[in-house]
Task: structure prediction
Amino acid sequence: MKSLKANAHLLADSQQQLSILENGTDTNMYALVPFQQKLEESGLYPLLPLTPSVFQVNVGKMCNQVCRHCHVDAGPDRKEIMTRQTMEQCLQVLAQQPGYTIVDITGGAPEMNPDFRWFVEQVRLLNRHVIVRCNLTIIVSNKKYFDLPVFFREHVVEVVSSLPFYQKDRTDRQRGDGVFDDSIKALQMLNGVGYGLEESPLRLNLVYNPAGAFLPPGQAALEQEFRTALYKDFGISFHSLYAITNLPISRFLDYLLESGNYEKYMQKLVNAYNPAAAANVMCRTTLSVSWNGYLHDCDFNQMLDLRCAVPQHHIADYDHSAMLNRSIVVNQHCYGCTAGAGSSCGGAVV
Amino acid sequence: MANHYYSEEDLGKFSSIGTFQKPLADKFFAWYGEVFAEGQLSAREKSLIALAVAHAVQCPYCIDAYSADAFEKGWNEAQLMEAVHVASAIKGGAALVHGVQMMNKVKAIAM
Result:
């Protein structure tokens, strides 16, 4: 399987995605309430930032996996990765803005960026909490990554790992054959160096996202099922489970359209709109920096090339005052973060 | 558009059932919500029971709703089908066990 970009697919163009989100596939049948209107009804429009605390950095689209739901359209054929120069610009902003207490590193598989370890070390020198969004299989994909659990431990990195389900079939359907077995091996390696154990400060959190056109079930009950099954079947421990909704962009949008589920899925998201979740969306406390240094309100806006509504869009020209006074850019995909209990990079929000 | 007694869109209109009689509908939905909440049985277990019952009562709306709900709650395809077989076995058994009544009657009147 290749990325949409490598296949020269129409949806590799973010403008095409936005056109479908705004107009649907058949304009006569598509009458979803605009997200902006929902926010207005909830007294939340324009959506304004709260105190920013999470500095999320997408260090590249390169990945060892090609997952069917990937909102980044990541894969081995994607070569866009953050340079050390851009990382240095991020570090300069972090040094000047102590309010960003958490640095959340994502990708692709962020570990494949050759400057990944250097960047983690530099961020830790600034005394910030580091989260790495690890797809797990990268750890066992090549011997040069076998020591990642030890590296994470040395730098007290919080590991947030994708594991769509606690059973092989459902995981492999979404992420590819063999992914479940490799993920289990990687989790056992992380447990082996102290991650995820009950009293351990080495945080290991898992991410569930639905393998299909439906919303996640309740996070608390699902976490208990994951905990019981993974321990019973594989002796694996973890701290928390984050249940994340798939947003209708990129490869998941392609899946929805190909399977004929797009309109129904969007309607399901709209019907499940929750004002309490809308008030707590992650973009209100997050800055998302793309591989080439541009500023976005979240990783999803980043993939749709929706940059922050500030005069200067690049990290090299970062203006904290402008960031605090901006309005967050929203579109129809934002319904994915406000459905039900809400969804964020940290799971449910209410 | 074809005219069917059952229409998929009607499932989404279930919540409007109170239009003609609101107090009873409100009581039904409040009770329904409580029935399916986490309790001595988990919401996940209740969803699978609901799927089986949906087949037993042959309600297309319920089958639609609880096929999705049970799958979303993590039951896999084989488990869903086993639940349907349980419902079918009970329905089949319910018919067959009346054969005893038939036998009783026949024995009562036969020489």
User: Anything to note?
Assistant: Strands of chain A lie at 54-58, 102-106, 129-134, 158-162, 204-208, 241-243, 286-289, 295-296. Chain A has a mean pLDDT of 95. Chain A has one domain: 10-338.
